[in-house]
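Narrative of activities, Objective 1.

The group set out to show that a structural description can be obtained from nothing but a protein's sequence at a throughput compatible with the screening campaign. Below is one input-output pair from the validation batch, recorded exactly as produced.
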Amino acid sequence: MTRMRLLLLALLLGSVPASAQIYKWTDAQGRVHFSNQTPPQGAKAIVVDPNAKEVPPAPAAEGKDCHTIRCQGERLEERERQRAALEEKESAARAERDAKAPKPYKGLSFSKYISIQHGMSEGELLGVAGEPDLLADQGIAIASPGTVQVAPGVRRPARAGLSLKTWTYMPTTSDPFTTTVTLVGGRVSEVERVRKF
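Output recorded for this entry:
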C-alpha cells in the first residue's frame, strides 16, 4: 500500500504546473538565451509566456502598415478589382480560342437521309436535315429547257442560270456516312451517301 501512496503522491506532484518564469535575454556577443533562472546582472531580460505561439508578422502591403478596417477594406476592394479584371481577360481569351476552334460535325442520321426527296426546296431540306456541316456555293448552272423568240421568225435556245450549291454532312462515330446533297436552282437535284469508315 505504501508503494501505491508514493506513486499517487508522485503523480500529484508531477501534475502541478510549474510556476517558474522563463526569461529571454541577449548577452554581450549578441546571442539570445532562454532560461528559467534569473539572468545575470545588467542583462535586459523579458519574461516569456511558455504557452505563446510564434506568429509570423503579417506582410505589409504597399510598404505601410494597415491596421484599420477602412484600410483593409480598400485593399480588399483593390484585390477584387484585380481578380475581376483577370477573370475578364481569361474569359475573353477563352472565347477567342473557342471561336477559332472548328465546330464538331453533326452528320446526318439515316432517318433524316431517307426523308430527303428530289425536288425539295432549300427551305424544306433545311427543315428536314438541318444545317449542313459544309456548304459550297458552286456558282451558276446553265440550263436550256426550250427556245425563245429573239426576233421575228428567229428562235434560239433559252438559257437560264440556276444557282448550284452543295450541302455536305460529314461522317460521325454514330453515323459513318458522308451525305452530299446537290441543289440546282434552290431544289434538291442529287443525293449521294457514301460510307467513309
